[in-house]
Amino acid sequence: MVSWNDLKECMCDRFVPPHFRKNLLLKLQRLHQGTLNVDAYFKELETLLIQVDMHEKEEAKMARFVSGLRRDIQNVEELHEYSSLQNLVHLAIKVESQISRKNAFKNTHNDGYSNNSWKNKNKSFSKYPPKESSFKTRDSNPSTSNHKSPTKSSSKKCFKCL
Description:
Elements: H1 4-15, H2 18-29, H3 38-52, H4 58-68, H5 71-79, H6 85-109, H7 117-121
Helix pairs in contact: 2-3, 5-6
């Protein structure tokens, strides 16, 4: 009678290529949070640990988890004490949501001056007037110049006429 572990080992030797475990170990070693949220990063870490069949102590898992977090979350994690991996993950999720709220607040309130629409109205401010200027040069002889009265444009209507 063969035990489950013996069967599992025999199946792995037979069907899993030798480089597969090495690639998983490298992936585990290089794992960082990056653009993932904390929960997705933790699930990826747990998945890799299970796939590699690595049985680490909880302190080693906590150290691995913290070292892969983004630097801004690591800084806050270092200030708090935690007793278990689950407490550490929960704290990291709370810190991440707090940081995202803070960044969202900064983006919408921009130091109290959130209305920047006046900046976008006339972006063509320049030291020099444009080449086709609306300024007319004066003739030296004003009597010869033809002054036409401004014509009204029928295509433009006031807000009452619309």
